[in-house]
Amino acid sequence: MEGPLAHAARTRVERAFIDNLTDHTRVARDRAAGSRPERLSKRLLVDVSHAVEKAVMASSVEPPTVVVSLFQRLAHFDRERAVYERMAEAGVTVVVGFVAGEGHAPPEGVTVVELDPAEPLGDEWTVVALGPRAGAFLVATDQHTYDPAERAVEPGRIFDGRWGFSRAQAATELARLRFALGSRLAPDVVRTVDDLLASTMPAGGDAAGSAGSPGEMWATTSLYHMIDRMRDAHAGTRELRDQLADVHAATGARAASGTDADSGLPDAGFLERWTPRVGPGALQVGVALFDIAAFDDEALASPRAAYHAGHRVAAALTEPLGPVDVAVRLDARTFVVLVPGASAVHLGDLADRIGEGLALASEGHPGVALTARVATTTTRGRPLPIDDLRAALDHADPSTDPVDAGPSPTGAHITVAVNGVAPGEPEPGPELVEAGRHVRLVDDGWGRDDEARVPRPSPLGSALARPPAATRATPPTFDGLRGYRG
What we know:
This protein is of the alpha+beta class. It has helices at 4-33, 42-56, 74-78, 81-89, 167-181, 187-200, 214-256, 269-273, 303-318, 344-361, 386-394, 430-434, and strands spanning 38-41, 66-70, 93-99, 110-115, 124-130, 135-146, 157-164, 285-291, 326-329, 334-340, 373-379, 403-407, 413-417, 477-478, 484-485.
């Protein structure tokens, strides 16, 4: 059964997904039209460049077909020299450009132009192809920055650019290059380009659309989708490597940090010794802060009671965790669970399961309810936002369901779940039991000897806190701002 924290996280993710679908048509059209520049890596530019080059040579060349490529440096072209020579042999009008200052041995049949390092074209990585019935374009500008997550400098180069298979937009890019290169183009190349543009550009009242035909939009959109998925997979592989590195770091931190005698968990020194990778490529870490007020209770003042309660809480915190995850005792009543690589949904589910475990841990000696208030977030920021989570708990309304506390000052997104009845308030009646808001059993007939007993409810209001399915009300929805709406 889904607990409230997992429900809140899942609802937020689903709402974002629906909003993304609503925006999908506009985004797809903008991408196909080349009106939405995006941050691109050199790895992606190489793959898209090869895709355009292979598309040109996929069938017999229909003249006039023009390909213009700007390579920045001769070394980048040398690896593709044979490809462009084959294009020229097949009848394609080929123009390649490099920054001036290097010796450029022109390939057979290829027009070479020199670029001034100070002009904008000198920073471009461009491949534009246009024929009588098809076109493709890749236009990107070097940002002279690097992706710190890449292991080598050259593959980590960052560009802002756009690409697609719209013939209309390819014609627009070719016209831009034709005027930018100007007299550097040979007269016969200029005539070929001008004739092709004259037959391609819409005239008079003809329909004009840079996004291209439906077929071109389909092709561009599907390719963007596949590339996005491949980039996600690559990022996931890289994140897994970082997660494994964090396992080794956490192991070393456990060995070097102290141990809390009453719970057997690592003490606060663990956070000082374990420093996950920082920077833009930092691994996302799920952080759940548990505040258990019962440790201030006089019933836990004796060492024996504190020992039993501490070990019961430690068991509840660690039972659902994986080998990478760790639970730490920060002080007498505060614990934190760290989950490297966790999504908000996964972290919410873990927090709900821990809440159920704390409810079970409350049974038996020393007879104190080990219920907790919990604040969760996922973050790539360092140091971890422990203070922000404490502040969120301090300002939380003790009578509400899980709420979205919004972004913290450091940018972390925090969700707070508070259990328990506020001091001085009456016990919740049956109507709150039906809404899933109670945290203690209510004497409303459920506990009679001749009827099935309701299990002791979870402190976070999860499955153990719900009445039988026959009488269960419709689950409340999470509105992302003010908590649940029944």
